Amino acid sequence: MFGGRTIIFNIKVHAMNEQEHVIETFTEMASRYESLMNNELNRFWGVSYPEFVRELVGEIIFSKNLRILDIATGIAFIPQFISKQELPFDKFAGLDITFEMLLKAKQQISGKNIDQTIQLVCASAHAIPFQNGKFDIVTCCLATHHMNTKLLLDQISSVLKPGGKFHIADVGGGKRWKNRIIQSIIKAVAFIYFIFKENLSRAQAESEAVANIMTIDEWEKLITDHGFSSIKSRELKSKRFWIPNPIILEAIK
Known about the structure:
With 253 residues, the protein is α/β, with parallel strands linked by helices. The protein has one domain: Vaccinia Virus protein VP39 (Rossmann fold), CATH 3.40.50.150. It has nine helices and eight strands. The chain has an eight-stranded mixed β-sheet, sandwiched between helices. Helix 5 (99-109) links the parallel strand 3 (91-96) and strand 4. The chain is globular.
């Protein structure tokens, strides 16, 4: 049942250090997540957080019957962004593995006219607790590098209706990133950067995530292998040449 008043707690945490670091990191970041994303996206890619979300959702055809799942919803920024644009939809579910992020989301949507149209669910994207074929659209922004993308696409395929569509936006990697020496250097640089700019848990989470970053070609092959069609991919330009470009992906079940 949809409704913004209750956060469904159905979290299934795998015994993985990487996931534990992610939860610890985003628990600490919850109170400042929006401003932090604005600062980091402007610094790395030259866009604001709302501008980047607009790039992600710009291809969605909205209608009053649309049911949307936002994976790694965090503070429910995407559901709130879409609601503020007064774009039509029926119901919105926001799923996140970090309970503290969802508490912040609940505070932000409480008492607003979107309170009853957004359901917040604390669970892993590797084990989404919704029935098969429930959603028309699935979105996921700035999170896949913290996930097992094969498991993620399995879950997206399960919860999408036939003909449903997913929209993913995240950092993309170049082919050189697959070189073990280069990847080790990037991991070390990420760790050093975030331990000075943020803290140990963020440094661990972002360093571990480097191995999960994929090129557009890798994404397209994986998406095809999962049976999706009409695949579209776009690569945006980073503000600085040494920063990997963001990518936006969409496909139909």
